[in-house]
Amino acid sequence: MKVRNTFGNRFRGTLGKELVASSWKGHEYLRAYVVPRDPKTERQLQHREIWREAVAAWHALSADDRKAYNREAKGMTGFNVFIGQYVRRRERGQSPPPKPTE
Questions:
Q1: Contacts with 37 (C-beta within 8 Å, 6 or more apart), sequence order
Q2: How confident is the model at residue 3, as a pLDDT?
Q3: DSSP 3-state assignment of 29?
Q4: What distance in Å separates the CA atoms of residue 91 and residue 35, rounded to the nearest whole number?
Q5: In sequence order, what are the residues at sequence separation of 6 or more whose Cβ sits closer than 8 angstroms to the Cβ of residue 87?
Q6: What pTM was computed for the model?
Q7: pLDDT at position 13, please?
Q8: Which strand (E) or helix (H) includes residue 56?
Q9: 10 by DSSP, 3-state: which?
Q10: What own/partner pairs with CB < 8 Å and gap ≥ 24 does 84-93 have?
Q11: pLDDT score for 27
Q12: Please, are residues 53 and 86 in contact by the beta-carbon 8 Å criterion?
């Protein structure tokens, strides 16, 4: 989202640590900046580690494997398909997803 001030400058995202310019359903607005809560629970840290593993595994795939995941994806990217499968399987204690089928 981009917000214009009286001088015509456009803003998007955070403005210092005071305001955030954003939009919702096509309506632009400003809101106060709020420091995100990060309790760093054991479960949260484990979940973040799984996501880091998933992204690293995606980058380790061959170009052909990535293309296969992109072909498999419907309405999203191969990255989203792979990461979703990887995270769900790891959370259930299973091994990472197998290579995509042709």
A1: none
A2: 59
A3: strand
A4: 28
A5: 50, 51, 54
A6: 0.67
A7: 82
A8: helix 42-60
A9: strand
A10: 86/50, 86/53, 86/54, 86/57, 86/58, 87/50, 87/51, 87/54, 90/50, 90/53, 90/54, 91/47, 91/50
A11: 78
A12: yes
CA 13 to the chain's CA centroid: 17
Asked whether 78 and 66 are in contact (CB, 8 A), the reply is yes
- Tell me what pLDDT residue 86 has: 95
In this prediction, residue 102 carries a pLDDT of: 47
The string of DSSP letters for 72-99 reads H-SSS-HHHHHHHHHHHHHHTTPPPPPP
Element (H, E) at 63: helix 63-72
Which regions of the chain are under pLDDT 50?
Answer: 102
